[in-house]
Specification:
The protein contains 1 helix and 9 strands. The chain is α+β, with helices and mostly antiparallel strands.
């Protein structure tokens, strides 16, 4: 073999590939566009994250303010009041006065969401209700002995 000319299909240089190099690029571009469209649709259809904005101690309980309606589950357990909110928020604690006697409350993060625990030296029971107020959601936790 001398040179690069064809002699009985024996040559020293490669022939140009007849296949197009654009097809892998087209497939890669389509995959990238598909992923981007999927991310945008997922972002648009994702539910709004529920966040605890503030806690207010009121005359006979607590008012908890959220940016969206929280799912909640509460129980009166052995003289304490426990309410679980499916929302995000920071851990807090405080005290309030119920009929002139101190009552302690604590918010803490758990696997289920935010847990509000209200305890006192005497048995307590409570009721809770959520309502929309000026674009925010207020959960009223009312306590009584």
């Amino acid at each position: 073999m001398h040179g690069s000319r064809h002699e009985d299909d024996e040559h020293s240089t490669l022939e140009p590939d007849p296949r197009s190099k654009a097809w892998p690029r087209v497939l890669l571009s389509m995959a990238i566009v598909g992923v981007m469209v999927g991310l945008m649709i997922g972002r648009l259809t994702a539910p709004e994250e529920r966040v605890l904005e503030r806690v207010e101690a009121v005359q006979d309980g607590l008012d908890l303010w959220f940016n969206a309606e929280p799912r909640l589950h509460g129980e009166n357990v052995e003289g304490t009041v426990a309410v679980v909110f499916q929302a995000e928020g920071k851990a807090q604690r405080g005290q309030l006065s119920l009929q002139g006697k101190p009552v302690g409350w604590r918010l803490q993060q758990s696997e289920e969401g935010l847990v509000l625990t209200v305890v006192a030296a005497r048995p307590l029971s409570g009721t809770w209700a959520a309502a929309e107020d000026a674009g925010h959601w207020r959960v009223q936790v009312r306590l009584h002995e």
